[in-house]
């Protein structure tokens, strides 16, 4: 059993050979099933111009899922502040919070959501990368507009997404809950957490430090099956190690035939050791160890598995082994 709630991050991986519309259709079933399984919240990530990840706006997916579910919390994880005018973010998520009171989250991040410079410039109308001061102003303005301009009643719950100490410092200064991208930069997690907790200033949004850890989780009945299911994302990651964001999301069969370099194998093995891959017993232990090491208030699982049925089975197995007593405990 685990002492913290479980949530999920949807990155909407697009299957090789299938239209992106199929991935979009799957997000509906995914939200409904996660609610049935008892997951606390489901967030949608913002991505652009990638053959492996659908460019589906988090605000649209949030609105769609909220209309088709009744209890699970929904929102962005995250919407990327440099790509949007603060008042528009406040209006969009403020409206969602008014329509679905107590169920909407506004997770804000910094990155461009793309590995393509021309796409990043198009998103920002030709502007260059955001400075630290500009990002802070964007986040602060979005929060201010939520309160002073939108003022529709119930507010979305704001979170700051971070994978670094700099992001943790901003979350602490603004008094926001923090969602740490352990699934992207696990080596930064403990240092970022230490800074966040040490420098946290209470605010109207959060009275004490509040920590969500996002961890890549691939669970199957056996270690071998989990490794097979993780294969497609390994191929995508190997491309990212070379600075390539144009690698499609292959089938498990295509991934099993992929040839990795020794350096890629080493990097992938090191990364996987800090995530939660394997059988239910292995995954349960790794997630519990992560909670113990970080003192997290919540875990968010991201599960980049090719087939929807296998992905849902992973979430089901984790919930069964972490949140429900086994026969020996009953």
From TrEMBL:
The keyword Oxidoreductase applies. It comes from the Bacteria. Residues 18-115, 153-293 form the Luciferase-like domain. The keyword Zinc does not apply. It holds the Pfam family Bac_luciferase. GO terms for cellular component: cytosol. Keywords: Monooxygenase, Oxidoreductase. SUPFAM superfamilies: Bacterial luciferase-like. InterPro entries: Bact_Lucif_Oxidored, CmoO-like, Luciferase-like_dom, Luciferase-like_sf. One of its GO terms (molecular function) is monooxygenase activity. To bacterial alkanal monooxygenase alpha and beta chains. NCBIfam families: oxido_grp_1 (TIGR03558). This is FMN-linked alkanal monooxygenase.
């Amino acid at each position: 059993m685990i002492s913290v709630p479980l949530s999920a991050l949807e990155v909407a991986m697009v299957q090789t050979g299938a239209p992106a519309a199929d991935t979009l259709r799957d997000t509906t079933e995914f939200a409904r099933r996660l609610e049935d399984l008892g997951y606390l919240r489901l967030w949608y990530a913002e991505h652009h111009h990638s053959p492996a990840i659908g460019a589906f706006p988090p605000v649209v997916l949030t609105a769609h899922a909220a209309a088709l579910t009744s209890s699970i919390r929904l929102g962005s994880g995250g919407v990327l502040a440099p790509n949007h005018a603060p008042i528009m973010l406040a209006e969009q998520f403020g409206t969602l919070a008014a329509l679905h009171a107590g169920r909407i989250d506004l997770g804000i991040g910094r990155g461009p959501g793309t590995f393509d410079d021309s796409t990043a410039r198009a998103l920002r109308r030709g502007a260059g990368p955001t400075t630290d001061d500009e990002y802070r102003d964007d986040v602060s303005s979005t929060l201010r507009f939520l309160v002073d301009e939108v003022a529709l009643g119930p507010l979305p719950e704001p979170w700051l997404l971070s994978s670094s100490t700099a992001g943790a410092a901003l979350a602490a200064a603004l008094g926001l809950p923090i969602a740490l991208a352990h699934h992207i930069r696990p080596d930064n997690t403990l240092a970022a957490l230490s800074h966040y907790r040490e420098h946290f200033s209470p605010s109207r949004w959060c009275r004490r430090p509040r920590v969500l850890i996002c961890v890549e989780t691939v669970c199957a009945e056996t270690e071998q099956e989990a490794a097979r299911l993780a294969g497609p994302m390994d191929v995508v990651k190997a491309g990212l190690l070379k600075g390539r964001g144009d690698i499609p999301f292959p089938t498990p069969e295509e991934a099993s035939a992929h040839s990795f370099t020794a350096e890629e194998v080493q990097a992938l093995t090191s990364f996987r050791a800090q995530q939660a891959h394997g059988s239910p017993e292995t995954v349960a232990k790794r997630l519990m160890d992560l909670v113990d090491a970080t003192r997290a208030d919540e875990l968010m699982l991201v599960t980049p598995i090719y087939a929807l049925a296998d992905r849902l089975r992973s979430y089901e197995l984790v919930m069964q082994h972490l949140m429900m007593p086994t026969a020996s405990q009953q």
